[in-house]
Amino acid sequence: YQRRVREKRGRKLKREQEQKEAEEKLRKEQEEALEKLRKEQVQKEAVKNSKSAEEVINERMQRVKEVCKRLNYPNSNQYNMYLFRKYGKSGISWCPTFKASSSTWRDFFIDNVLGSHANFMGTHYHLGVLGNQILTRGAGRGASAARKRVFSGEAEDSVRFTVVRHPISRLISHLRKAQNYPDEVRAQRGDWVEESVINGRTNPLWDTATRTKYKREWDVYINEIGSGRHSPFSDDNPYLHPPYPVFPELIDFVMRHKGRDDKGNNGHWRPTIEWCDLCQKRPGHHHTA
């Protein structure tokens, strides 16, 4: 009996060690990917700093035009433009791209335009707080040809801007939020989290009883997040080791849904060029950062 207990304990320790090693490997892979992106950005910044601001902007605009011509992106019409009249001569219009400093700019505008009293459904820092700043779609009467696809209420000489971030960096940022905050796992369960985990870890050789058991334990874990309860679950349940998606699972999910349904158009990985209709808005009139 004691020998069996020792063997069982040994197998459990081995699984825990293997799991730790797997998590450490994934963590290093993510850090290496971010470090590669950082080095590439440093190199780009070094080149950029040797040029004038006007040269940099002109190069960006030319790049946008080339990509638009090559990809022939249609008008997505799935975004909002926010106008803030207190800035600049005729105001500035902002198109937020998720996971590309959108929260930073959102909080800045909320604090500096609306003030500390503003809230949306009891929350201060929420994009819904800026609802009254959203421009109405459709150009106003008398708009010039260059502004035909602009929102009514936007001045001819207003400045528009968006923030661009490397798409892989956006994905990693979104993933890390789910990995570091269990509440995010629960909140985004139906959006992408559960499908990523279940599809990525289900073994086709499992019998029905095993599959049902593991899925039930996953459901209990998710439902108990934030409740203070922690029901036990199997040491060998792959859905809960770790209890959140990893990078390859997120990539697989995006590739399965991209261009097929709403899940593929999730704002956290939707391309900026689709978010803000850069191709439809005469790129020369945009300012990117």
Structural overview:
- This protein is mainly alpha-helical and 289 residues long.
- Helices cover 50% and strands 4% of the residues.
- The protein has nine helices and four strands.
- It has helices spanning 2-48, 53-71, 102-114, 167-180, 182-187, 189-201, 208-224, 247-257, 272-275, and strands at 82-84, 92-94, 159-162, 286-288.
- It has a four-stranded mixed beta sheet.
- Helix 6 (189-201) packs across helix 8.
- The longest helix is centred in the first third of the chain and has 47 residues, at 2-48.
- The radius of gyration is 24 Å and the shape is elongated.
- It starts with a helix and ends with a strand.
- Residues 283-289 have low confidence and may be disordered.
Summarize the structure.
It is built from 9 helices and 4 strands. With 289 residues, it is mainly α.
Key structural traits:
289 residues; mainly alpha; 4-stranded mixed β-sheet; elongated
